[in-house]
């Protein structure tokens, strides 16, 4: 008997026992968050290796605590042989996924590995949350089913990462549909490592039996995670916008300092016809707060929104400018309030806009004719670069096919020129210089991602989920508007430019998923590792696919063919040489010092 349960899992019964089961709810995942795990020493502090009670910690003497800790370390010495074998194995093979930990408890616990490759993937499905371990072939760490409490999840956030004193916390927001009480938006706070409820004395508990931390008696129209932390618990503030356009905030005290800078935009989403900018008006202490509309941007009549750009969750800018071959600098236009919007008209022309969401001004506008509405438009933003993909049917110029357009934004067209204002503000009148170029693309695209690293030093690599159910990685060097349409000069070679070609090469080496089909890709999520060269890439839809990608190669890791034996032999030879030459050199030095003292 095959049973599909309400949470999406599948169970196969043979007679009176379960033969196998599968967690198929992940095929309906709508959102995923990477969670950084705590360091091993922080995990040790959290579980308290001395197993002391809080009352005992206040009364025990330092000497007794020292003796107890010493006995604990002596007990751990029994794992030293295994630790030594694992350490030698890791050094010989270069496989750092095996951690040489002498602690028996720590082997089954969640903590960060050496290079930060191990993380938790926290999935949000319709009524379920599932956490997977990236270093253990996607093994399920925990899962929580909320079908009896809510009807559908809307959003999930990591509001607190792993720190010394506190466990990481995630917030899941869902809708509880009740015929008697109406719709209720519920907020759940969970320990991200265990999936258990995380409720403190500061929470506003609406339904104690359901462990709901916060609720509003309506459906949330928009949900934000603000870049402001609650001072006591160090958790990010969540803002909810209800259907009556009233703002409800968690931790009002921390938000008051940020309220003057809280601007946001609202649209009707895909298919909408306008874009609106708002600001929260805190004119009273009690919630909900009213919001005021600052501007409204109506697109031309008949135009509908087909795509909106989104920045990656983790974005670091390593350089404020781009160094050219002659050592001059083009300074990047780094406006964090830009949103890229694409609209399609009834005449099948695609309008591309760069809009400043603070004042609603259009900073750039481009039009592409003969764009097919039957193919989706995809947009992604990162740093000062915007990339969008669409299908063009320009029969006259014989350019029918997929196109990808890249736009680089700079402060000025001329090198070494910046805006006069040292502190960036959207209320200034400066507009960016947009350097754009179009290329023919060999495939249709379902979604676009981009690699992210810890400090943003490596070159970006754009990740295209193809219609062929594969992931195509393309370096920013190919998507560069500055690619010259002439022979390369010495300065171009110094800048490492590639000659312009109208078509992106269909190179099978660019396919990161090799021959593996990843069916039904809907999103690509990336996260930085501790290695600056490496980005963690995760594609999900019907299938789940995880890998590591190094856009600029692994410049901070020794290559696999590096001769470790030669290095060890060289070090050993130097040590032997020092031991042999040390006596005569030392005697000569002493003699020189003695002679100088005499004279």
UniProtKB/TrEMBL annotation:
Entry keywords, A to Z: Endoplasmic reticulum, Glycoprotein, Membrane, Signal, Transmembrane, Transmembrane helix
Key word Coiled coil present: no
Keyword Repeat: no
Pfam families xrefs: EMC1_C (PF07774)
Domain ER membrane protein complex subunit 1 C-terminal: 383-588
GO biological process: protein folding in endoplasmic reticulum
GO cellular component, one term: EMC complex
Topology class, membrane: Single-pass type I membrane protein
Cell location: Endoplasmic reticulum membrane
Primary localization class, coarse: endoplasmic reticulum
Annotated family: Belongs to the EMC1 family.
Name of the protein this chain belongs to: ER membrane protein complex subunit 1
Organism in which the protein naturally occurs: Gigaspora rosea
């Amino acid at each position: 008997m095959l049973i599909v349960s309400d949470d999406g899992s599948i169970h196969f019964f043979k007679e009176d026992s379960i033969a196998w089961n599968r967690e198929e709810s992940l095929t309906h995942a709508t959102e995923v968050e990477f969670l950084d795990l705590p360091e091993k020493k922080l995990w040790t502090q959290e579980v308290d290796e001395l197993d002391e009670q809080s009352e005992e910690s206040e009364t025990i003497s330092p000497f007794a605590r020292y003796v107890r800790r010493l006995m604990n370390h002596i007990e751990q010495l029994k794992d030293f042989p295994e630790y030594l074998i694992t350490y030698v194995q890791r050094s010989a093979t270069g496989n750092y996924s095996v951690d040489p930990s002498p602690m028996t408890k720590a082997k089954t616990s969640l903590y960060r590995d050496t290079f930060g490759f191990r993380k938790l993937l926290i999935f949000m499905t319709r009524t379920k949350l599932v956490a997977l371990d990236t270093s253990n072939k996607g093994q399920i760490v925990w899962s929580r089913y909320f079908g009896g409490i809510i009807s559908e999840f809307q959003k999930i956030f990591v509001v607190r990462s792993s720190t010394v004193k506190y466990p990481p916390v995630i917030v899941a927001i869902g809708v509880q549909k009740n015929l008697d009480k109406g719709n209720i938006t519920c907020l759940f706070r969970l320990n991200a490592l265990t999936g258990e409820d995380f409720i403190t004395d500061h929470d506003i508990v609406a339904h104690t039996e359901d462990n709901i931390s916060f609720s509003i008696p309506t459906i949330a129209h928009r949900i934000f995670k603000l870049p402001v932390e609650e001072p006591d618990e160090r958790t990010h503030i969540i803002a909810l916008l209800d259907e009556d356009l009233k703002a409800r905030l968690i931790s009002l005290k921390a938000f008051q300092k940020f309220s003057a800078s809280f601007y946001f935009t609202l649209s009707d989403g895909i298919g909408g016809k306008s874009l609106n900018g708002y600001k929260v008006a805190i004119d009273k202490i009690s919630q909900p707060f009213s919001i005021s509309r600052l501007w409204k941007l109506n697109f031309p009549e008949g135009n509908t929104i087909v795509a909106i750009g989104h920045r990656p969750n983790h974005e670091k800018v390593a350089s404020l400018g781009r160094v050219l071959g002659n050592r001059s600098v083009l300074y990047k236009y780094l406006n964090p309030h830009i949103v890229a919007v694409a609209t399609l008209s009834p005449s099948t022309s695609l309008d591309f806009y760069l809009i400043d969401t603070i004042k609603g001004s259009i900073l750039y506008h481009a039009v592409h004719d003969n764009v097919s509405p039957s193919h989706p438009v995809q947009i992604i933003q990162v740093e000062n670069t915007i990339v969008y993909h669409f299908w063009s049917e320009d029969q006259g110029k014989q350019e029918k096919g997929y196109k990808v357009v890249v736009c680089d934004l700079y402060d000025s067209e001329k090198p070494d020129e910046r805006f006069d204002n040292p502190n960036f503000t959207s209320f200034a009148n400066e507009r960016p210089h947009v350097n754009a170029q179009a290329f023919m693309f060999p495939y249709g695209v379902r979604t676009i991602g981009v690699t992210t690293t810890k400090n943003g030093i490596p070159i970006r690599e754009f990740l295209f989920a193809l219609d062929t159910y594969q992931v195509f990685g393309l370096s920013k060097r190919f998507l560069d508007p500055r690619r010259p349409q002439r022979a390369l000069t010495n300065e171009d070679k110094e800048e490492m430019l590639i000659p312009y070609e109208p078509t992106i090469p269909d190179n099978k080496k660019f396919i990161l998923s090799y021959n593996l089909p990843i069916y039904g890709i809907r999103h690509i999520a990336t996260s930085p590792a501790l290695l600056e060269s490496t980005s963690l890439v995760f594609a999900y839809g019907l299938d789940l696919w995880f890998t590591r990608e190094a856009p600029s190669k692994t410049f901070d890791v020794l290559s696999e063919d590096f001769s470790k034996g030669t290095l060890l032999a060289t070090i050993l030879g130097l040590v032997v040489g020092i031991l042999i030459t040390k006596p005569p050199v030392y005697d000569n030095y002493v003699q020189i010092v003695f002679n100088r003292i005499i004279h």
